């Protein structure tokens, strides 16, 4: 009674060997569909575009503000030294309409630092979007593989049932011939029902995994999926950790958040510097300031506003400094998290590989053992219980081999995700123009040049 060749072929095809073009395409399709249709990814993309528009909005702060004003209403002026006897102390209907333009000349670098703040916020949103794409890709890989794993386990369980039914048939014949007691037939029938319960449980897990796949990918029907092979991996743990810390989008997002807090602090300092602006305007009116008749006005002025005292200034500075410290500590925590993900992925991969190799040997040994037990049972030198226990051990070792190979494969892809290389591995441009146009705001850049770099993001 040898291991079912069909099931062995399924296990080999799904979990052994390098990735084939067809297999790669299928998993790539799953990931690509999720990244282009999942609402959570679309929400992150909208957040990036929002941040880009808010940055573009800052261009307007370097342009003059032009306002139209007007007023009409009764006016009473008592100024005997400045008004004629006929005009003085008489209520008149004053009316005026005009236009005024105001252009900031110096604002303590508030506009520049606000631009750098929003540019850093755009960087933060972009890296958050990219990290969400990597996370979504890994979730799809996991869901995809869960479907495959449960499909394979179900096939093995059905083969296990077929083997038990064959044993039950043989036992039934021997019971009818008086060679075995009825208790043996009842025992094997009980084992058959136990296997059927197991198949029902596995089928339920398969449906759960398909439901999870549908949730992520959005397809109404889950196709028959095949498992991916192993991608190329770093040569050692140190290389993996170094690559993860250097490339992980979550780390870059945390650094962008540090930049946001730094520029917010610089923006706040502008409030304590002199504000200089240029104003110009013109108006036409009548019966203004108590004097009868029409009047045309025009003016140009330089305005100075310097806030010399404002309560709570030191507390405000302290609060912004603590926000910057918070961002720095969060970045340190993120570095630790990424390192931990890389280390656990590496450890999980190595452990799963070892277990898979051991389980493969167990499958081979248990298969030989079952063959021997079957022969001895047929010769009446081995009990039915020994044969059933052997079948159960063979089934268990086959499941352990499937789980271990699936675990190794998933941890290999998790290593890619730790390095933020998962979408790139599937040839999916989840970055769009975002990554190439990362603003990376700093004081060495001209503010309006930073603003211009957001234009392609909103047009993509």
TrEMBL record:
PANTHER family in the record, alphabetically?
Answer: OUTER MEMBRANE EFFLUX PROTEIN, OUTER MEMBRANE PROTEIN TOLC
Protein location: Cell outer membrane
Q: Which Pfam families match?
A: OEP (PF02321)
Q: What is the superkingdom listed in this entry's lineage?
A: Bacteria
- Sample GO molecular function, one term: porin activity
Q: Which UniProt keywords apply?
A: Cell outer membrane, Membrane, Transmembrane, Transmembrane beta strand, Transport
| Cross-referenced PROSITE patterns | PROKAR_LIPOPROTEIN
UniProt family annotation: Belongs to the outer membrane factor (OMF) (TC 1.B.17) family.
Cellular component GO terms, alphabetical: cell outer membrane; efflux pump complex
**Entry protein name:** Type I secretion outer membrane protein, TolC family
